[in-house]
Give the backbone structure.
Amino acid sequence: MAYSEDHIALAAEYALGTLDAGERAQVETMMAVDTEFTAIVRAWEYRLGVLNQMVGSIEPRPIVWENIKAAIGHSTESQAPLVLPEAPPAPPPTEPVAEPVMAEPAVTPVVATPVAMDNANDNSNVVQLTGRVRRLRNLASIATALAAALVAMLAVQVYRPELLPDGLRPKPRIQTVEVRTPAPQPVPSAQYVALLQRDGGSPAFILTVDAATKNFTVRKVGADAEPGKSFELWLISDRLPQPRSLGVIGGSDFTARPVLADFDAGTINSALYAVTVEQAGGSPDGKPHSAPIYTGKLIETVPAAR
């Protein structure tokens, strides 16, 4: 059900403890028959309980109790015994005297006039309005106190959270920040080139070797294989017992191979690279079957970054 401002003010004052005995009995009767109103009272008790937790107990000075006792007539000093006055002696008996019979005064009936009824209604309205104003003032005072308590609690949570009870302390927030470092830029590696040519003539093939990856690329410039034949690339070094095949040079303009990974840098840089003409598909036994027709050695064209 919907509750008026008077009901809400009564619930707040009941939780605050400012009602008189009659109003408290009224609230307790409503709580006994109305669970929703009981929930409103419990909600005010919870809100005002926060104020009670934030305020510590203060023991009054002994002089305060002495002043209270003196104000209500209970002095700590010994009081003199209370002496009652003696009753006066009874008068001697006298003869009964006939009292004159008096006529009873006429009783005039009181008729409620409209003016009197209006005054009674006005007085009841004034009493109800006064009670409502008092409750609204108390409700405003409670709301102001709650607002001030919330502001104080927020300030304490921000600046001095250790002063709050455990249940009211803010939970620590853990924020994970991902920091990404820029990817390292690849360091330029040394580049080597060999011009494979015959007797100092125009180059037939250009061999390029990457020192970091040991991959090589052969570009065909001015050589065409005979029908049924294939060009095959060889590595010839005095560190090896015989020439080592680096594979057949394809029919396209560029042929790339990663086979130099099996050799160390010294062998790669000092070796002689040669091209022979073999049967289609290359040498069947891994040995050259014709004399080299194009040869060349690597020279460094791009130095390694330092």
Summary: The longest strand covers residues 203-210. The beta strands are 191-197, 203-210, 216-220, 229-236, 244-249, 254-257, 272-279, 294-297, 299-302. Residues 96-116, 118-122 have pLDDT under 50 and may be disordered. The helical segments are 5-16, 21-33, 35-54, 62-71, 114-159, 265-270.
